[in-house]
Amino acid sequence: MIEKLIRSEIRSFIPYNANQQPYKIKLDANESPFNLPLKVREKLSAFILENPQLNLYPDTDSIQLRQALAEHWDADEQGIIAGTGSDQLIQLISNVFVGTGDKVIYPVPSFGMYRDSCVIAGGVPVQYLLNPNKKFEYSKETIIEGYEKEQPKIIYICNPNNPTGNIMSREDIMEVARHCRNSVIVVDEAYAEFCDVTVIPYVKEYENLLVLRTFSKAYGLAGIRCGYSISCRKLADAINLARPPYNISSLSQYTAQLVLSEKEEIRENIAYLIAQRERMKGELAGIKGIEVYNSYANFILVKADNCSEVYKRLCEKGIFVRAFGHASLLAGCMRISVGTYEQNTIFLDELSTICYNN
Ligand SMILES: *Cc1c(COP(=O)(O)O)cnc(C)c1O
């Protein structure tokens, strides 16, 4: 009975399947391998011991956090929205702009939420392809053609792209923004700390441009579920119409703000992971049967001979990476998050053992 009650377009959804098995090394979700900075943990425990007022609802507008972010980015705090992960902001954007039959264009292969949130809102998702024969490069022409043809409410660009790791240049993104004036352009910069390419400065000039950022990756706070958007005030006001009250817990607001003030340690962590990424790219390229895609993020996409067997054997060793469906453009590919030197070394050793006995 329940099955029949589910909206038909949602019935075919596959529940999000995170690997919850015990593991030795977890390189499957692009999380940071670093613990919270000690200073932050100390301040957080002092906050909890004092009186965190958890009996009260949190600040519904995350004012202090948004002020700290506005200062960090030299942006207008009225144009910043904090979300329960940037995932929530993707949902809100769909809910505000996409009605029955409205179109959304989004890259493939990329992050699955762009499509799902559109379908849940009742819209029509239209993919634009990143060319697998050209290292999954973005093409501004393809996006502009999609815009002309579909007249979408929303255009997504994931930069750097998850899971392929490549980037679209700032110039190309801005050319899309200049051309596609009648759509909301969402640039998802979940991994931008690892490449320093951002279009945040342009939200002042382009009222249809919105940038998504998150504390889940470079800032090492996937556990608190906090992300944010930066746009002009008008666009933020529109999205806020659908935002549930009290959407960020007070502990999350406080923790995010604390981490934002530990700029030096975060910077060091990012530099460390970038160095490890470059090391891994080099070493992976030397392993038999592995083809490496360039990456500007904290993960690396590889194509592996006999991928499902390699993936299975890594799992048996307690090493988790992300594999993809057989039918997709990513058939035979795995995405490996960059970990600590020690984790990466163990992973590389196991992978080469598997590949040379394959
Ligand atoms: C991880 C990720 C996010 C966001 O995650 P939250 O934890 O919800 O902030 C957004 N976009 C992409 C492409 C991601 O990979």
From TrEMBL:
The modification N6-(pyridoxal phosphate)lysine is found at residue 217. It is an enzyme of class 2 (transferase). The keyword Amino-acid biosynthesis applies. Its cofactor is pyridoxal 5'-phosphate. It comes from the Bacteria. CDD domains: AAT_like. Its EC number is 2.6.1.9. It catalyses: L-histidinol phosphate + 2-oxoglutarate = 3-(imidazol-4-yl)-2-oxopropyl phosphate + L-glutamate. GO terms for molecular function: histidinol-phosphate transaminase activity; pyridoxal phosphate binding. Keywords: Amino-acid biosynthesis, Aminotransferase, Histidine biosynthesis, Pyridoxal phosphate, Transferase. Pfam families: Aminotran_1_2 (PF00155). Residues 24-350 form the Aminotransferase class I/classII large domain. GO terms for biological process: L-histidine biosynthetic process. Pathway: Amino-acid biosynthesis; L-histidine biosynthesis; L-histidine from 5-phospho-alpha-D-ribose 1-diphosphate: step 7/9. NCBIfam families: hisC. Belongs to the class-II pyridoxal-phosphate-dependent aminotransferase family. Histidinol-phosphate aminotransferase subfamily. PANTHER family: HISTIDINOL-PHOSPHATE AMINOTRANSFERASE, HISTIDINOL-PHOSPHATE AMINOTRANSFERASE-RELATED. Homodimer. This is Histidinol-phosphate aminotransferase. The gene is hisC.
